[in-house]
């Protein structure tokens, strides 16, 4: 095991690591997650995108219109400023990119595994945080809201689709999220590949 | 009329029913599906324009142009009331006849529509992104702006000619002097800015005192020319019905506008009087009304080659140029033939003395036969207006015999008689006056309805009819009642307009001087006896929501709709406001409701356009203090 951890990774895999690092840079410019709302009276659909540092509507005025819809049920207004996590998320991503470059310069399997652990831990924390926000938005309703449906909460799904009154809310990773998942896969493949090469060379 | 019955006499019941159900399928647009064509119909004496979908013939919208519209406050609010200013003062109604679509290279380009006001000479530009009237220009030195607004091939100019000749400049002279030539007409060249669409009067030409009726401009080889029909060449001024119907031929005036512009540039036009207004509605701002005075006036004698008269039987109405630009079809209201002039022949003979029969005001009169390409013999009674299908056929409406006649260009043979219900005036084929007709649908715009719909009192709805002209024989598909008199129409393929229709006014671009873009800025400001309420609307409330003013104050509610969602206008109305009706304020728009605070009391105001689940709660109060 120690032998594998300390093993120097192949030139090819080293370049792949560099590729993953560069791929991560694109996550600054791509939405990570996408929530869409479908309802008969919104034939063009409504949606919001979660980026590394902000929340926006799928099109220019969607967020304003989602908030207008939500105000009937007393949901807090969704604005980037109310999510402090968005302030330090860019640095977390920067740390992962930095890790990729360190691994490129110091190409050892243990660093790749460390990378995987980092992404998994950050991913789990991120998803938990996302779920917590969704829970709070969906449950912490203004008691003076015009429309109160007894027992109704409006928490959107973490992943997948869910019916809420007449609205179908769907939540899926967007390009940035897909890149993070794919990168995780690439790193796992690299470790698997290194293990196989070690086994073969024995 | 024997002609009317042709081809319709002996259908058995079953065949007719099968035909009807087939026609129903062809006009049926399923829920959620869109129509294929926009039809814009002028409203005649309603002064408005309405928008229908074809083939369903569903009414989508009434666009207010020359008449006030209490439904949305057009002509009443501080933003649009200046649109109806004229040199005669505020004129809140007009008689709107002809719609012209803007063209590039002779083809519809979907940017603007233009509409004339016949009664108080004016011309309007309607923007086809917002489907709103954006500019109205008054035509000075004109009485009855009927032969208007017909566009040149690239919408360089719109033509506007006088229907009622009068003394120009105006003077109180004996009416008998009409027949002595003291009454005149004018042809106006209204320039259209190619980028902004802004209108300006570039030149007027003084013409003999006939009644100028309709016009169409050339295309392709006849690009430089426009053709105007005239009636009452007799210059009768009493019992015109008889007096103006004496001559066997009246005239089509062939006008070389490129030559006229040349003469203008050479300084041959002189300064002439005439006061007029130009009213322009910038995007989401109050209309800007300018009073202008004076035009450049050209006399035909100072500009040889600018005009020729082509005799045309008999009180011609339509003057329609075919898609190739070669044929000019005259429609003589009292004629028994459809005369077709040839543009090439006109060019060949116009300056040869042997082809002339006289001069009026230095305008040469050419001989009828010299420019004639052919005549459609005995087509119908009262041929009026001809449109083209782009496949070599022409369709002419016939008022007296109440039918549409299909005939072939070149052979001048009648192919088909289509009955119309009843008394068809103008007709319209999609793009039928352009270089590239989209010859699938034809509508006939009728004057009389009689038995077509359930009776609704003495005044029946006016009516239009839809025909399919895509096959060999044209077929009646349906008929539909219209708003006002469906005087004239332009039909435009939906694909040219539907995707660029504006959905909202972006708030960040709102430059209205009294706009506020945030509820936090909502406030009431007193300036002496004037109170300005900077108000916002968003589902489902106003800010500020309770207001206090003093009796006698002039209150301006500057209301901004903060919504940025398609189809979420809000309304604004105050109980008992005598001078201002409702306002409809589009998303991102600011409009102003002016209110004289009445005697002390509590006055409600509310949103009139059902906007949300809490629309009914979108209401508040103004307290008027003593
Ligand atoms: Cu409302």
Throw out a few tags for this protein:
heterodimer; A: 202 residues; alpha+beta; Butyryl-CoA Dehydrogenase, subunit A, domain 3; elongated; B: 626 residues; mainly beta; ten-stranded mixed sheet; five-stranded mixed sheet; 6 helices; globular; disordered N terminus; binds copper (II) ion; transmembrane (chain A); membrane (chain A); Copper chaperone NosL (chain A); transmembrane helix (chain A)
Distance between the termini of chain B: 74 Å
Strand content range of chain A: 15-25%
Hetero groups: copper (II) ion
Unreliable sequence segments of chain A:
none
- Biggest sheet record of chain A: 5 strands, antiparallel
Examine the coordinates and then state which fold CATH places here, giving the name of the CATH topology of chain A: Butyryl-CoA Dehydrogenase, subunit A, domain 3
- Helix share, percent of chain A: 40-55%
Mean pLDDT of chain A: 90
Q: Identify the strand order in the major beta sheet of chain B.
A: 6-7-8-9-17-18-13-12-11-10
Tally the helices of chain B: 6
- Number of separate helices of chain A: 6
Structural class of chain A: alpha+beta
CATH architecture classification of chain A: Up-down Bundle
Give me the oligomer status.
heterodimer
Count of distinct structural domains of chain A: 1
Shape of chain B: globular
Largest interface: A-B, 10 and 11 residues
In short:
With 202 residues, chain A is an alpha+beta fold. Chain A has helices at residues 2-6, 11-26, 62-70, 85-105, 109-139, 175-201, and strands at 33-39, 42-50, 55-57, 160-164, 167-173. Helices cover 54% and strands 15% of the residues of chain A.
């Amino acid at each position: 095991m120690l032998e594998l951890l300390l093993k120097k990774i192949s030139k090819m895999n080293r370049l792949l690591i560099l590729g993953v690092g560069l791929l991560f840079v694109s996550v600054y410019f791509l939405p990570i997650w996408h929530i869409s709302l479908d309802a008969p009276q919104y034939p063009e659909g409504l949606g919001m995108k979660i980026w590394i540092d902000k929340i926006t509507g799928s099109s220019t005025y969607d967020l304003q219109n989602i908030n207008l819809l939500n105000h009937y049920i007393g949901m807090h207004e969704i604005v980037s400023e109310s999510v402090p996590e968005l302030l330090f998320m860019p640095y977390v991503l920067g740390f992962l990119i930095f890790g990729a470059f360190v691994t490129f310069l110091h190409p050892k399997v243990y660093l790749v595994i460390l990378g995987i652990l980092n992404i998994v831990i950050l991913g789990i924390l991120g998803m938990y945080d996302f779920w917590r926000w969704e829970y709070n938005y969906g449950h912490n309703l203004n008691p003076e809201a015009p429309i109160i449906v007894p027992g109704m909460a409006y928490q959107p799904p973490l992943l997948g689709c869910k019916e809420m009154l007449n609205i179908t809310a769907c939540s899926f990773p967007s390009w940035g999220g897909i890149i993070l998942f794919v990168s995780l896969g690439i790193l796992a493949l690299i470790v698997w590949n290194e293990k196989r090469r070690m086994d073969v060379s024995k | 009329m024997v002609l009317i019955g042709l081809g319709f006499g002996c259908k058995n019941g079953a065949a007719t029913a099968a035909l009807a159900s087939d026609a129903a399928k062809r006009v049926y647009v399923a829920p959620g599906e869109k129509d294929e064509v926009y039809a814009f119909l002028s409203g005649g004496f309603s002064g408005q324009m309405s928008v229908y979908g074809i083939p369903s013939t569903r009414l989508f919208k009434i666009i207010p142009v020359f008449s006030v519209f209490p439904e949305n406050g057009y002509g009443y609010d501080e933003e649009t009331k200046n649109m109806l200013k004229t040199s005669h003062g505020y004129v809140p109604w007009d008689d709107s006849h002809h719609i012209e679509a803007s063209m590039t290279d002779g083809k519809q380009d979907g940017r603007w529509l233009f509409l004339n006001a016949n009664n108080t000479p004016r011309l309007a530009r309607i923007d086809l992104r917002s489907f709103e009237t954006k500019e109205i220009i008054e035509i000075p030195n004109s009485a009855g702006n009927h032969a208007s607004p017909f566009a040149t091939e690239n919408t360089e100019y719109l033509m506007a000619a006088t229907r009622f000749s009068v003394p120009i400049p105006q003077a109180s002279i004996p009416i008998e002097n009409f027949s002595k030539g003291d009454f005149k007409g004018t042809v106006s060249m209204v320039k259209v800015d190619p980028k902004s669409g802004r209108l300006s009067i570039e030149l007027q030409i003084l013409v003999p005192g006939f009644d100028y009726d309709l016009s169409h401009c050339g295309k392709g080889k006849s690009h430089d020319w426009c053709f105007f029909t005239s009636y009452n060449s007799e210059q009768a001024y009493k019992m015109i019905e008889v007096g103006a119907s004496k001559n066997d031929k009246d005239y089509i005036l062939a006008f070389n506008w490129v030559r006229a512009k040349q003469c203008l540039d050479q300084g041959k036009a002189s300064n002439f009087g005439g006061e007029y207004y130009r009213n322009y509605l910038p995007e989401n701002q109050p209309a800007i009304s300018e009073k202008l005075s004076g035009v450049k006036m050209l006399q035909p004698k100072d500009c040889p080659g600018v005009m020729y008269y082509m005799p045309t039987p008999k009180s011609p109405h339509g003057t329609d140029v075919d898609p190739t630009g070669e044929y000019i079809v005259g429609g003589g209201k009292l004629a028994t033939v459809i005369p077709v002039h040839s543009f090439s022949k006109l060019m060949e003979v116009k300056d040869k003395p042997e082809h002339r029969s006289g001069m009026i005001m230095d305008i040469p009169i050419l001989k009828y036969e010299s420019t004639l390409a052919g005549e459609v013999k005995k087509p119908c009674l009262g041929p009026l207006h001809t449109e083209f299908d782009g496949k070599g056929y022409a369709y002419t409406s016939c008022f007296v015999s109440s039918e549409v006649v299909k005939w072939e260009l070149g052979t001048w043979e009648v192919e088909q008689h289509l009955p119309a219900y009843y008394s068809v005036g103008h007709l319209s084929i999609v793009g039928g006056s352009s270089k590239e007709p989209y010859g699938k649908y034809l509508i006939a715009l009728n004057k009389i309805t009689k038995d077509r719909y359930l009776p609704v009192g003495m005044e029946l709805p006016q009516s239009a009819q839809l025909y399919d002209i895509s096959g060999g024989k044209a077929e009646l598909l349906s008929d539909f009642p219209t708003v006002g008199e469906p005087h004239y129409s332009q039909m435009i393929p939906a694909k040219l307009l539907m995707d660029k229709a504006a959905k909202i006014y972006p708030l960040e671009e709102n430059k209205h001087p009294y706009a506020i873009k945030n509820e936090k800025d909502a406030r009431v400001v007193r300036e002496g006896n004037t109170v300005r309420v900077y108000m916002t609307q968003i589902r489902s409330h106003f800010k500020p929501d309770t207001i206090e003013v003093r009796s006698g104050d002039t209150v301006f509610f500057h209301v901004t709709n903060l919504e940025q969602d398609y189809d979420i206008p809000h309304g604004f109305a105050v109980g008992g406001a005598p001078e201002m009706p409702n306002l409809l304020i589009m998303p991102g728009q600011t409009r102003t409701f002016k209110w004289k605070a009445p005697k002390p009391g509590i006055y409600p105001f509310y949103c009139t356009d059902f906007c949300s689940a809490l629309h009914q709660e979108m209401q508040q109060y103004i307290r008027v203090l003593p």
